[in-house]
Each structure stands twice: as C-alpha cells, then as structure tokens.
C-alpha cells in the first residue's frame, strides 16, 4: 500500500489464543496456589516458631500460627551471645568479610573469564567450557578435601582467605556469565573497538551493564552459600569464626539443649532473614537469568 510516496506494509497481527477453557484456567490457578502455599509453609512455620514460647513449640499436634507471641527467644539468644568470650559483633564482622569478599571476587573473576570464552573463541574454548559444565556435577563435599590440601600447602588455613579464595572458583558463575554474554551482539563489541575502546573498557562499560541480571543472580547465590558457611574445616581460631558457626553450636545443643529450642528458632530466623530479603528484592532478575541461560529452577 502506497501512502505519500512511501510504501507502507500492513501486517496483520493475530493475537495468540490459549487453547484452554475457563474451567481449565481456574483449575490451573487453584493448583498453582496450592503448590505455592505448600512451598511457603516451612518459611511461615520458621517465622512463627521464633516468636512462640516453649509451651507452644512443644505442643502436639504442632500448630502453625503463634497464639501468644513473645520476644523472649531473641532476648535469650542475646544473653547467650553476650556470655560468649568472643563478642557478637566479631562474629558478624567475620561473616561480612567472608561473604562480601567472596561474592565480589567471584562475580569479577567469573565475568572476566566468561568474556573471552564467549566473545573471543580462543583455541580450546569448547574443551574448557565442557570442563566447566562437567565441574557443575561435583558438590562441595567432593571438593572439600582438595580445597583443604591446597589451602594447607599455601599456608592459608585459619585465615579468611581459606573461605574467600575457593569461592572465586565456583563454576556456576562462569557458566551463567558465559551463557548470558553469548547473546550480546558482536556488532556492539566491534563498534566499541571502532570508537577506540580497549578490551577492559568494552568489558566494563558495555558488557557488564548488559549482563546485569546474571551478576545480580550470582551475588544472590554466592552470598547465600557463604552466609551459611560455618568454615569449621578451615577456621580454627574462635575469633575468626562466622556467625553461622555460633548459631550452629546453639542448634546442636552445645549451649542450651532442649530448653533452648526457642533460641534455636530465633537463630534460624536470623540466619535466613538476610538471604531471603536479598532474594525477594532481586527475584525477577534471577528468573530472567535462569530462563536466558537455559537452566530451570
């Protein structure tokens, strides 16, 4: 169709229609709500337990909602922490050093290693990527002994670096960043080179902003893993222990036993609260990254 000397192409856009009845939609929504409630049940139970008195914690059959909320569990937890010869602030400081240092280092190293794998196709890049995918099969328990041997040989046992440096080498981060960077057009990198940008500038000012969902996802995953790490296989000095270690001792009964079940519930809530808030604030980025990289939750 010609209009004003220009050719206008009209395309009919057909709206996709779902081949599902209204009753099917209602049934599917009901199933999703049911599974959602089932999934959130442990979280709600943990939150409610932290505010229950002992009389409600040991009631049978157990009840989900708290009837007489109390702050005594948190007060008892604070009293236990104050009785320790290492102050609570020291445990928190150790946790922040390990978590923040390991997370930042992993994101930077994984992104810098993924950039040449995704965009520079050097010899052997397929073999390297196959090794990365293969390494995803090994859990931390399998690599625990090799990590300890390496840290012991270089003299980093009983130091923060014994937990921070192994976090740099998590293969999941390199996998996600590489898969995400492959979708960036090569023309964008070529235009940066034409403008005189160096490889470092292209990586930092062009690539990293475009893969923001990927490195936000890495921050959540690595932060959660390091936040819950006790470090007992590498750290022996009490002044270097993270917060999860002392809370783990409380859970195991080393500082109270059955009478401290309310304190255990309060400690569990504190440990999951920070990673949970971080995930809620960035969950859309996590879903986007997982769908883009080909992984499924």
TrEMBL record:
Record InterPro entries: MetI-like, MetI-like_sf
UniProt keyword terms in alphabetical order: Cell membrane, Membrane, Transmembrane, Transmembrane helix, Transport
Keyword Membrane (UniProt): yes
Subcellular location as annotated: Cell membrane
Membrane protein topology class: Multi-pass membrane protein
The UniProt record lists the keyword ATP-binding: no
Assigned protein family: Belongs to the binding-protein-dependent transport system permease family.
UniProt name for this protein: Carbohydrate ABC transporter permease
Native source species: Vallitalea pronyensis
Biological classification of the source: Bacteria, Bacillati, Bacillota, Clostridia, Lachnospirales
């Amino acid at each position: 169709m010609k209009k004003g000397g220009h050719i206008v192409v009209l395309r009919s856009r057909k709206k996709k229609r779902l081949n599902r009845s209204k009753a099917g939609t209602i049934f599917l929504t009901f199933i999703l709500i049911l599974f959602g409630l089932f999934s959130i049940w442990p979280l709600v139970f943990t939150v409610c337990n932290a505010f229950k008195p002992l009389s409600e914690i040991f009631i049978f059959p157990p009840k989900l909602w708290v009837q007489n909320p109390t702050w005594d569990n948190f007060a008892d937890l604070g009293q236990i922490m104050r009785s320790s010869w290492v102050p609570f602030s020291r445990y928190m400081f150790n946790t922040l050093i390990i978590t923040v240092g390991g997370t930042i280092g992993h994101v930077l190293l994984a992104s810098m290693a993924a950039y040449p794998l995704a965009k520079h196709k050097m010899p052997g890049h397929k073999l390297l990527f196959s090794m990365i995918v293969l390494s995803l099969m090994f859990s931390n328990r399998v690599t625990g002994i090799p990590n300890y041997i390496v840290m012991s040989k270089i003299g980093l046992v009983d130091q923060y670096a014994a937990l921070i440096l192994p976090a740099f080498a998590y293969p999941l981060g390199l996998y996600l960043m590489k898969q995400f960077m492959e979708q960036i057009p090569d023309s964008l990198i070529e235009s940066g080179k034409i403008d005189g940008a160096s490889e470092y500038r292209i990586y930092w000012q062009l690539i990293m902003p475009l893969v923001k969902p990927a490195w936000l996802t890495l921050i959540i995953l690595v932060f959660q893993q390091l936040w819950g790490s006790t470090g007992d296989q590498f750290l022996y000095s009490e002044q270097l222990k993270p917060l999860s270690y002392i809370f783990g001792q409380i859970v195991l009964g080393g500082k109270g036993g059955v009478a401290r079940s309310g304190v255990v519930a309060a400690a569990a809530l504190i440990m999951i609260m920070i990673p949970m808030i971080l995930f809620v604030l960035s969950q859309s980025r996590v879903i986007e990254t997982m769908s883009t990289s080909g992984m499924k939750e």
